[in-house]
Write a structure and sequence with these properties.
Elements lengths: L19 H7 L2 H5 L12 H11 L6 E6 L5 E5 H17 L7 E5 L4 H12 L3 E5 L5 H10 L4 E4 L1 H8 L11 E4 L9 E2 H6 L15 E6 L9 E5 L2 H13 L6 E4 L6 H13 L3 E5 L5 H10 L4 E4 L1 H10 L2 H4 L8 E4 L6 H11 L3 E5 L9 E2 L10 E5 L5 E7 L2 E4 L5 E6 L9 E2 L3 H5 L2 E2 L2 E10 L5 E6 L4 E3 L2 E3 L1 H8 L5 E11 L3 E10 L7 H15 L7 E5 L12 H9 L15
The structure holds adenosine-5'-triphosphate and magnesium ion.
Length: 580
């Protein structure tokens, strides 16, 4: 443990912020509701909250999205532009006879049309599902089948490569909208259809419990699940965006996540727009120089990214960041994977700003555990439960669930009464029901709460290793390994062993300038032994070019393990990098 990083100023803006524990104690849901407008007769529509009402309130000229194209183009889309474009899109859907609740899938890169399609669908009262454009034909098809897709919005290239071959076999799919001015046979070109549509569309009178979004989980532990979220989720997006990411009107905010992953929608579309920020959208994938330049040139104030990106930056060394001006940046935040303490310390040094880890899941729809602005950061800890969120550490047994105390390792559980919680897993009622026991939602992650209320991630229940009587979380071992100067990333699994039960095997990606030699392997093992003790240190280290990761940047330990044991690989539809 690296101790606590104290925030002398009491926050990230140099002004005194309310004590976070006090904020938690005094929180009521009225505070979240106060951030919303609402529709007559108890209606609630995410698109109205995120876009139209800001225009109504006189902020139409404010930039909602600053879009950075791959090739250097830059487009500013104001709230008024976004209102008009989403209205046109909603009118296109309406003209095609689509009805409330119909399912619309988006398959494209991070182009402005993606944001228009997502919000236009919600405005029309239909249900939106964003998919990663890099998915292959099979993962796309499976997800569209699970979601009973009625409409697909995509590009001509993606359509020809990934959809055309099997489209005839999906009878639910009524309409394919193609971005641009022309479309292949059987599809509709979106450009002319939008141009011919009315510029006004009153947001559908959806109710808080009406479905709005389907998000598929990352598939890290197995077959992805389709989590259904409702319009009421916007209440939680609004307030959690305020508290955890300090999204206030006018803030320049950049979330690097693709909307194909829940983070890219909850905090890459809804939370920022509801809070009327100006958000940066970068079409390109990670590129060290581009990212540093974007942070600097756009004067990004709040940056939400993933640990994998920070590890890539660390790997490139401090020098790349040296001459940069990050003075606008107030803090960084990340989600999706454990944030290694080393990464917190590194970014404190390089950016000179605090780094806030936060924990949540596709299922929870929003940030559950976080470091709030005025809260001291304990590197390696996820922070504390958000205002309005009741969390606990529990143990399951045949008799039910019992709550454990401070310092105990157990399953991270939540009292499921916040607005953005999933309402079901599509077509998987039994799997959904299994998540709830004795009034708790069980996350499948193991964690520990310290005596001051900070939560520490231990590992996914599936990834836990039992070695010589010790319970070992891969995170702890991986974090120790990346402290070694040669190690950029590490993925750790347990492999069966006659005497120890399991022994630890590590897969390691090296920093540039280091060669994969037996001597280096021994040196890294020696370092791990010193840090962790012989029982917990890896018995074997294998060097790889990259670790197998999901598109949302998570290490797929189950795949390393399946290969090690010669077992079937299981669902690998979300697999991205994977080079030995
Ligand atoms: P699947 O459920 O399909 O196996 P997944 O759990 O990776 O995939 P997501 O919902 O995208 O799908 O990810 C949520 C999980 O990511 C959490 O359950 C947790 O294991 C991990 N996670 C998220 N944030 C953090 C964090 N700050 N620290 C540690 N782990 C995190
Ligand atoms: Mg999960």
């Amino acid at each position: 443990m690296l101790g606590t990083i104290r925030k002398e100023s009491g926050g990230t803006r140099g002004v005194s912020l309310p004590d976070p524990d006090e904020t938690r104690r005094t929180f009521t849901w009225d505070l979240a509701e106060a951030l919303l407008d609402g529709l007559p007769d108890g209606g609630l529509n995410i698109a109205h909250e995120a876009v139209d009402r800001h225009v109504g309130a006189g902020y139409g000229e404010q930039v909602a999205i600053r879009w950075l194209g791959k090739t250097g183009t830059r487009e500013d889309i104001t709230y008024a532009d976004l209102a008009e474009r989403t209205s046109r899109f909603a009118n296109v859907l309406k003209a095609q006879g689509l009805a409330a609740g119909d399912s619309v899938f988006g398959l494209m890169g991070r182009v402005p049309d993606l944001y228009v399609a997502a919000l236009g669908t919600l405005k029309a009262g239909l249900v939106f599902t964003p998919l990663f454009s890099a998915f292959g034909p099979e993962p796309i098809r499976t997800r569209m089948e699970i979601g009973s897709a009625r409409v697909l919005v995509t590009t001509e290239t993606l359509y020809r490569r990934k959809i055309a071959n099997w489209r005839a076999e999906m009878p639910t799919l009524k309409l394919v909208l193609i971005l641009g001015d022309a479309a292949p046979e059987g599809c509709l070109a979106l450009g002319p259809a939008m141009a011919a549509s009315e510029t006004v569309f009153d947001a559908a009178q959806t109710l808080p419990e009406d479905p709005a979004l389907i998000h598929f989980t990352s598939g890290t532990t197995g077959r992805p699940k389709g989590a259904v979220h409702v319009h009421k989720a916007v209440m939680y997006h609004a307030i959690s965006g305020r508290y955890a990411l300090e999204l206030t009107p006018g803030t320049i905010y950049w979330c690097t996540a693709d909307p194909g992953w829940v983070t890219g929608t909850s905090y890459g579309i809804i939370a920022p727009l509801v809070n009327r920020v100006t958000m940066i959208v970068d079409e390109a994938e990670f590129d060290l120089d581009r990212w540093y330049s974007t942070l600097e040139r756009e004067r990004v104030e709040v940056w939400y990214t993933a640990p994998t990106a920070i590890r890539m930056m660390m790997r490139a060394g401090d020098a790349a960041a040296k001459s940069r001006d990050f003075s606008a940046l107030r803090f960084l935040a990340s989600v999706g994977e454990p944030l290694n303490p080393e990464a917190v310390v590194w970014s404190n040094r390089v950016f000179g700003k605090p780094f806030h880890d936060n924990w949540w899941q596709t299922e929870t729809g929003g940030i559950m555990i976080a470091n709030l602005a005025a809260q001291d950061v304990r590197p390696g800890s996820m922070g504390k439960p958000m205002p309005g969120i009741r969390a606990g550490i529990v143990a399951r047994s045949a008799a039910g669930v019992t709550e454990l105390g401070d310092g105990d390792i157990g399953e991270l559980a939540l009292r499921p009464d916040w607005p953005s919680m999933m309402r079901s897993y599509l077509h998987e009622q039994a799997r959904y029901d299994r998540c709830f026991v004795d009034g708790w939602y069980l996350s499948g992650d193991l964690a520990m709460r310290d005596k001051d209320g900070y939560y520490w991630f231990v590992g996914r229940a599936d990834d836990l290793i039992k070695s010589s009587g010790h319970l070992v979380g891969p995170f702890e071992v991986e974090s120790a390994l990346i402290e070694h100067e040669a190690v950029a990333e590490a993925g750790v699994i347990g492999v069966p062993d006659d005497t120890a039960g399991e022994v630890i095997k590590a897969y390691v990606v090296l920093n540039p300038g280091f060669e994969a030699t037996g001597a280096l392997e021994r040196a890294i093992r020696g370092h791990a032994r010193k840090r962790l003790g012989a029982a917990v240190a890896p018995r074997e280290i294998v060097f790889r070019k990259t670790l197998p990761k999901t598109r949302s940047g998570k290490i797929m330990r189950r795949l390393l393990k399946a290969r090690e044991l010669g077992l079937p690989e299981g669902d690998i539809s979300t697999l991205e990098t994977d080079e030995t």
